[in-house]
């Protein structure tokens, strides 16, 4: 369907929309010709709807898309009025999924009473009544999750009624928009940052056309700079502010010029602000922050009183500001996670040492659960490129991964297991991961019987790598009281046909998964059997191995080799 046909369908849907409400519309004229209503609707909804366009003063940008004559001096005002009359209700219903009559009255309540929409008076009153009812409906369901509200709104749409959507291709990145995004991260203007982060999130979710970071070389640099500044403005993400830092800000040479009593007073004041974040230190006395030697040193008790007083005034403001910064940072991390999952972007991320260091610090600190989760998901993707010996965070990173692996969140455990599986495929990382086997082998053994098949497959792949390393590592796996038993049990899965599944396609898919798990278990057992000291632990399962080898052709060669090795044991 070309654009003209789309416009024709849209006009028909718009007319039907108003006819169902007892209103006959007429397409207005502007500048001596009929207004392109379809073009206007796309331009406004692409930017987030009427409220966003009006709040960010984007009407001039929309006017530029129309070739209005120079005599049309109030095009922005005229377009906005026409949009309110013809398209606002349609936008609220189909673009936002709202009830009929829902209109953002904060911007337009003063205009409604003065503007004639072309309806009869009773239709206007009915519209206001519906709006009031919708507001009551919103209050009733305000405590429900967003997903519930969306499902309720979706169910109210008639099945036979065609809904007009903006094409998915419209969320593809444009060079001008990306340039605006980079400028937003440099300028730190709040509205522009919201635009930038929301658009990055939108681009990162466009799977029809991947967003390739290498096409915009400076983008990650500007994002890294923004992340650095934002972390400094969120108190609980900051490190403690030590006395040593205070000495550095005052200046060692100037401290030497202070008398003993002044040194002691300075020490007391510094202790008061010790272990506080940098933002709170801005509330400390000016003699400390600005190093004004002419100012009188304030008594500690007075400094505490002054700080409490300032906190009462600024506390709420700072908390709200920190919340806004935190929400933006969380959303940005989600977008970065999505970008990292695009294979073509992995190399770009690995070149950003400073950005990676922030990911490490966020994960290691664990200060914010959502940020840490996004960082862990990023590492689960980039781990195939990570060389632990080249990272200054090697020891702390390994300890954190093991800590998460031994935790209770199976979603995080799956990410850590995937990270280990990817890192062990790099030869430089083998010795480091082998050396810590005693700290995580019990948890991996438990995951062999976990119900999630995808996680179990990752664990089996990791054991395949691990069992192909040093003989001592193979012996450690064989000595574990549960691993061999569970690997042999997985071999028997291949004998179970999924006749309980109704559809043949489902049975075939499940059989393929089981077949892969069986092969991975057989490869691991074969690797273990190559260690002479490990054979005695496999002898216990010789009968089970023989039965599986005789009945499952897919693993017969591997199990036959294991049985041959066991036959040589005296």
From TrEMBL:
<dbReference type="Pfam" id="PF01388">
    <property type="entry name" value="ARID"/>
</dbReference>
<dbReference type="InterPro" id="IPR001606">
    <property type="entry name" value="ARID_dom"/>
</dbReference>
<dbReference type="GO" id="GO:0003677">
    <property type="term" value="F:DNA binding"/>
</dbReference>
<feature type="domain" description="ARID">
    <location>
        <begin position="4"/>
        <end position="95"/>
    </location>
</feature>
<keyword id="KW-0805">Transcription regulation</keyword>
<dbReference type="InterPro" id="IPR052406">
    <property type="entry name" value="Chromatin_Remodeling_Comp"/>
</dbReference>
<keyword id="KW-0804">Transcription</keyword>
<protein>
    <recommendedName>
        <fullName>ARID domain-containing protein</fullName>
    </recommendedName>
</protein>
<keyword id="KW-0539">Nucleus</keyword>
């Amino acid at each position: 369907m070309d654009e003209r046909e789309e416009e024709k369908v849209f006009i028909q849907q718009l007319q039907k929309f108003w006819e169902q409400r007892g209103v006959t519309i007429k397409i207005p004229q502007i500048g001596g010709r009929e207004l392109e209503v379809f073009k206007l609707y796309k331009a406004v909804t692409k930017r987030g709807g009427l409220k966003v366009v009006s709040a960010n003063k984007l009407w001039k940008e929309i006017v530029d898309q129309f070739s209005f004559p120079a005599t049309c001096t109030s095009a922005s005002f005229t377009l906005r009025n026409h949009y309110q009359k013809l398209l606002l209700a349609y936008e609220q219903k189909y673009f936002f999924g709202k009830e009929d009559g829902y209109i953002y009255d904060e911007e337009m309540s003063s205009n409604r009473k003065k503007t004639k929409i072309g309806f009869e008076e009773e239709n206007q009153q009915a519209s206001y009544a519906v709006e009031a009812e919708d507001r009551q409906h919103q209050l009733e369901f305000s405590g429900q999750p967003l997903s519930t509200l969306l499902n309720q709104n979706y169910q109210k749409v008639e099945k036979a009624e065609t809904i007009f959507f903006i094409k998915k291709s419209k969320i593809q990145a444009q060079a001008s928009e990306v340039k605006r995004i980079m400028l937003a991260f440099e300028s730190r203007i709040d509205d522009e940052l919201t635009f930038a982060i929301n658009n990055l999130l939108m681009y990162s979710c466009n799977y029809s056309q991947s967003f390739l970071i290498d096409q915009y070389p400076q983008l990650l640099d500007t994002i890294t700079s923004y992340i650095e500044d934002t972390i400094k403005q969120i108190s609980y993400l900051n490190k403690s502010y030590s006395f040593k830092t205070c000495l550095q800000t005052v200046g060692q040479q100037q401290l030497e010029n202070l008398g003993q009593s002044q040194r002691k007073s300075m020490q007391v004041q510094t202790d008061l602000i010790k272990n506080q974040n940098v933002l709170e230190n801005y509330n400390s006395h000016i003699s400390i922050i600005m190093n004004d030697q002419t100012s009188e040193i304030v008594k500690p008790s007075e400094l505490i009183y002054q700080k409490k007083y300032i906190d009462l005034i600024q506390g709420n403001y700072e908390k709200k500001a920190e919340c806004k910064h935190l929400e933006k940072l969380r959303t940005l991390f989600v977008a970065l996670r999505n970008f990292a999952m695009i294979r073509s972007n992995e190399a770009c991320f690995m070149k950003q040492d400073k950005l990676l260091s922030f990911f490490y610090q966020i994960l290691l600190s664990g200060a914010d659960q959502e940020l840490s989760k996004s960082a862990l998901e990023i590492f689960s993707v980039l781990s195939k490129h990570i060389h632990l010996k080249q990272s200054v965070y090697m020891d702390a990173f390994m300890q954190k991964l093991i800590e998460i692996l031994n935790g209770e969140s199976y979603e995080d455990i799956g990410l850590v297991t995937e990270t280990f599986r990817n890192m062990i495929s790099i030869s430089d990382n083998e010795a480091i991961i082998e050396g810590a086997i005693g700290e995580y082998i019990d948890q991996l053994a438990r995951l062999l019987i976990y119900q999630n098949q995808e996680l179990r497959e990752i664990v089996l792949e990791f054991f395949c790598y691990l069992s192909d390393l040093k003989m001592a590592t193979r012996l450690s796996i064989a000595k574990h009281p549960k691993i061999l038993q569970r690997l042999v049990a997985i071999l028997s899965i291949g004998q179970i046909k999924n006749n309980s599944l109704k559809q043949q396609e489902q049975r075939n898919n499940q059989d393929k998964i089981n077949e892969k798990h069986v092969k991975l278990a057989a490869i691991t057992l074969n690797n273990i059997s190559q260690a002479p000291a490990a054979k005695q632990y496999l002898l216990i399962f010789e009968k089970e191995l023989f039965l599986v080898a005789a009945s499952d052709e897919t693993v017969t060669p591997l199990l036959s080799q294991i049985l041959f090795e066991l036959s040589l044991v005296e």
